[in-house]
Design brief:
Elements (H helix, E strand, L loop, with lengths): L4 E5 L4 E5 L6 H14 L3 E4 L5 H14 L9 E4 L4 H12 L3 E6 L10 H10 L2 E4 L8 E5 L7 E5 L4 H10 L7 E6 L5 H13 L5 E3 L2 E4 L7 E4 L4 H13 L2 E7 L12 H6 L3 E6 L2 E6 L11 E2 L7 H10 L4 E4 L11 H9 L5 E5 L2 E5 L9 E3 L5 H7 L9 E4 L11 H7 L3 E2 L1
Parallel strand pairs: 2-13, 3-12, 4-5, 8-9, 16-17, 20-21
Antiparallel strand pairs: 1-21, 1-22, 5-7, 6-7, 9-11, 10-11, 13-15, 14-15, 17-19, 18-19
Helix pairs in contact: 1-2, 1-3, 1-6, 2-3, 3-5, 4-5, 5-6, 7-9, 9-11
The structure holds shikimate-3-phosphate and phosphoenolpyruvate (PEP).
GO molecular function: 3-phosphoshikimate 1-carboxyvinyltransferase activity
Keywords: Amino-acid biosynthesis, Aromatic amino acid biosynthesis, Cytoplasm, Transferase
Enzyme class: transferase
Length: about 425
């Protein structure tokens, strides 16, 4: 049984010391698929402790012991793990066996038709076991490949493309993936290709087409970097503290993760970053902040949006954002969730076509703020830094953080938050 709610406050408003973040769930989940297809000579170091990674690990183990001839399907439930759902759809489609791939109620509302269509074009046996276009999926794994060419829409979720690219080297005819329309969350696609390269898998990317020939992974150790999305919450806490100087070990400027964008974004909110030997130091800059915040685009780093929007609201900085189009199909409708919760302390997020305007004139000092989290880890973690500026912040269903950052509350306590 999880905890219903916690209350947080930060008496000293000072932050100092070291926070050791867990490994990136995005990198970990790619590494697990590469290992499952590549065999024992693919090693992984610093695998994430995130629930989503543990879920995918367990699912791959279950698939490995499924008899190819089994008539009754093996049910694999990924709960709320989006990358696990998308990566497993492609992985199970090429793995002999009979599978029912399902997830949480929210997962059944997160679209997957673009990926299923692409797999069917290749010849895969993937059927909808519920509503067309959505999980659960009935998968007859293993198929005769009909073609090596698929066209996939790139503007809904990059996870569909990553899922196909991860299995591409194991397809007998390889894969030519033609990306249609504007590509969203691009750094996650390049992360996939870079991690395949780490395992010795070559690709060619020309124009809108990525080609991967059939090939085997080479012996390698994939070292998962700390999670930059998790780092973003510490940036927000530093921005809201009276004084702060934190060291985050093993974070490097050149990362596979596009969420390094937080370094530049937070420079507009009074946080200075310096890359030192062995990690990253983030410090609160004393004095006035830059006058205005430029238009911030989250198309390449959607997971940072909640962190930054909430932090800006708490600092009473009006700002405008774009690239939020994928937020409505994530763990929750993140736009609606943000609008509702920001309203609880007087901030408004107004949609204006593709741009959203944050208005903070009405922000007031809420005595007892109660934040709902909508089964979304990032709602909990984006609003928790408000404990730095409001006397008491209650976070409902705080266990959601386990999805990507299980030690989040423990780390907050170590940094002086009083949590009851
Ligand atoms: O491939 C990945 O690891 C991810 C891609 C992104 O999703 P979309 O491509 O759906 O935007 C991101 O939001 C998600 O947290 C992780
Ligand atoms: C969108 C996210 O995850 P997923 O799509 O993997 O559920 C996330 O972690 O913010």
């Amino acid at each position: 049984m999880g905890t219903d709610a916690i209350k947080l406050t930060h008496p000293s408003k000072l932050l100092s010391g070291t926070v050791a973040l867990t490994g990136s769930k995005s990198e970990s989940n790619r590494a697990l698929i590469i290992q499952a297809l590549g065999g024992d000579h693919v090693n992984i170091a610093n695998l994430s402790s995130a629930d989503d990674t543990i879920t995918l690990h367990g699912a791959l183990e279950a698939a490995a012991v499924t008899a190819a001839s089994a008539e009754a399907p093996t049910t694999i439930d990924v709960g709320p793990a989006g990358t696990a759902m998308r990566f497993l759809t492609a992985y199970l489609a090429i793995t002999p066996g009979n599978f029912l791939l399902t997830g949480s109620e929210r997962m059944k509302q997160r679209p997957i038709g673009i990926l299923v269509d692409a797999l069917r074009t290749l010849g895969a046996g993937v059927q909808y076991a519920g509503a067309p276009g959505y999980p659960p999926l009935a998968i007859r794994g293993g198929f005769d490949q009909q073609t090596d060419t698929v066209r996939v829409q790139g503007n809904v979720s990059s996870q569909y493309l990553s899922a196909l690219l991860l299995v591409a080297p194991a397809l007998p005819r390889g894969l030519s993936l033609q990306i249609e329309g504007e590509l969203t969350s691009r750094p996650y696609l390049t992360m996939t290709l870079d991690m395949l390269s780490e395992a010795g898998i070559h690709h060619e990317w020309q124009g809108d087409v990525i080609h991967i020939a059939p090939q085997k992974a080479q012996p390698c150790t994939i070292t998962v970097e700390p999670d930059w999305s998790a780092a973003s919450y510490w940036y927000a806490m530093v921005a809201l503290a009276d004084e702060a100087n934190l060291f985050l070990p093993n974070l490097k400027r050149s990362s596979l993760q596009g969420d390094t964008a937080i370094v530049d974004i937070m420079s507009h909110f009074g946080v200075a970053s310096s890359f030192e030997r062995g990690g990253l130091r983030i410090q609160k800059v004393a004095g006035n902040m830059p006058e205005s915040v430029p238009l911030l685009d989250f198309k390449e780093c959607p997971d940072l949006a909640q962190t930054v929007v909430v932090c800006a609201a708490a600092l009473r900085r009006n700002a405008s954002f774009t690239g939020l189009h994928t937020l409505r199909i994530k763990e929750t409708d993140r736009i609606a969730a943000l609008q509702k919760e920001l309203g609880k302390f007087g901030a408004t997020l107004i949609e204006d076509g593709a741009v959203y305007h944050l208005q903070t004139e009405g922000v007031y000092h809420a005595e007892h703020l109660v934040i709902d989290t909508y089964e979304d880890h990032r709602m909990a973690m984006a609003f928790a830094p408000l404990g730095m500026v409001f006397p008491q912040v209650q976070i409902n269903e705080p266990d959601v953080v386990g999805k990507s950052y299980p030690d989040f509350w423990k780390h907050l306590k170590q940094q002086g938050f009083v949590i009851s």
